[in-house]
Amino acid sequence: MRSEPHLLSYLHEDMIEAGCDEAGRGPLAGSVFAAAVILPKDFHHPLLNDSKKMTEKAREILRPIIEKEAIAWAVEEVTAEEIDTINILNASITGMQRAVRRLETRPDFLLIDGNRFKPFDGYKYQCVVKGDATYASIAAASVLAKTYRDEYMRNLAKEYPHYGWERNMGYPTKEHIDAIIAHGYTPHHRKSFHLKQLEPTLF
Predict the structure, then answer these.
(1) What is the helix (H) or strand (E) element at residue 61, kind and residue range?
(2) What is the set of domains in the chain, with CATH numbers?
(3) Paired residues of 29 in beta bridges
(4) Strand pairing class (124-128; 72-78)
(5) At what angle do helices 136-159 and 56-69 cross, to 10 degrees?
(6) pTM > 0.90
(7) In percent, how much of the chain has pLDDT > 90?
């Protein structure tokens, strides 16, 4: 099976590369999830793409395939409380670093989605803007991060049914904002994420 033709299998043919991505930077509620994935150099799948461009069904199909076929993979969570403490950019970077540290195989090089990262543990890395639409390993990481976060938000929605998190995944939809106005914030809301229409409300 061939993946989307624009997805590259690697940057360095002679290195073990891990693709890294996160999901959940923009929501008002819930954790950020980050993933790191080392794929075989010959891994291809026709559904694999930037997770934001994939259907939910396609992501759910790919998740177990990636988990089975990857040389190594890991998913890590950074909570709303941590996000409020270190800010969302640092939370995203921290999540990816945690995921890399959990990989059973140590990569030689990291491919990071986006344009910001911080050196750690001596890893060599390269940031790639729109990396999840460029490299298969980053796309695979985006699928894992997105599916794990969506599952987490659907479970939270059972505890807090007023906010529609099973549909909006914590993003600032009208439904979500109206629910905050009516029912207030939860412990899972990010206190550092303020919208003008919510300024009169208090944590």
Answers:
(1) helix 56-69
(2) 17-149 (3.30.420.10)
(3) 189
(4) unpaired
(5) 120
(6) yes
(7) 89
